[in-house]
Amino acid sequence: MSLTLKVKAPYMQPAVCSVFAMFSGSTTQVRNLLVSVVQQPLGLLSSQLEALKAAPGSVLQIPLKISNPLSDPVRAALEISTPPGWGAVVKDATGTIIAQLRLDSGAFTQATLMLSVPREASPGTYPITLTLRGVDPYFIEKLTINVTVASSTPALRLTTPTPFVNTYAGKTAQYQLSLSNLGDSDCVASVAVSGLPQGYTWALKDAQGNVVSQVYLPAGGSLNLYLAVSVPPLAEPGAVSFQVSVTAGSTGDSLGLSLGILGSYKLSYVTQNFYVEMLPGSTSTFQVTVRNDGYSSLTNVKLSVASAPSGFTASVSPQNVLLLKPGNTTTFTVSVTADPTVDAGDYYISLVLSADQVDAQSRDLHVFVKPPSTPAYYAVLAAALLLAGVVLAFRKFGRR
Length: 400
Description:
transmembrane helix, Immunoglobulin-like, five-stranded mixed sheet, A-galactase_NEW3, Alpha-galactosidase NEW3 domain-containing protein, mainly beta
């Protein structure tokens, strides 16, 4: 027959004990067993990080695992020992600060040690000790993590997926910038733009749309910024190169960007009512106003007469406008002369507006010839007819 003797020793009490086992029957047998109780780590508190490096003013997040490998449920309080001026809390997965917890046998929970390094911390190695103190049953489990504080510097890197952007004069171009701190120290980075021509303006915004000129960047962190460059309305088509730079103390980085200015050409009639009245044999003037509604200057702006009805002559002054800037207007004067023999009625003179940069636009000038209604008109008409007869007679009989 074989027997198994189970001995349960209390936690945290190392000792050497004698255990007497007595077997009674027809005879009595006594055995003296020597039991050594050895204190060993219980394995309730662990972390994959045993030592790490940090910069003054940094905030560390260290993963922890709190488990219960014992055969009994445990209830324990969690204590943290830090150097003076350091801040530390342990939070569970929901963000709740852990002060005391209960775990059944075999259960575990994931936690995070939030550790704040003072900005004035001197270089050196500092132990952070976590103590899990058992309330029921009693035990003490400790875990020490060494944090080495070292003098460090930031290392800034500036990149963009859009180094070249096109836009129109009078519009705004936007660049997405990615700013990273590859160093081991937090920093406040200043951003500046240089090389833009006069009249161009810029603004830097964060992801929330706030206008910024400086941004906080933790060690190893990165963020996106958005650079908006406004182009003046009178800017001519072409390409503009400029630089955006970022600095923090003695470190910095710069990035070359290009901006393409696209020409936007549009020539419009301001005058809407193309109508004029006149009498046969008279001359009338009509003014046509046009405007440059684009974002670039127009050259050789011209209003010309494409066609006129029989019995009419038309001319335009001035013949052309050499330069018309965006938003500006100019006025042409159209002179229309009707022959005395023109019948009363509606007539149309075709006008064409053009410039070197735009397609020609046609508009019809409506000319209404009013019927004669006064004796003076008949006298003028008779005189005109008499003059015409004299001219014909002179051509036929003049030198005989």
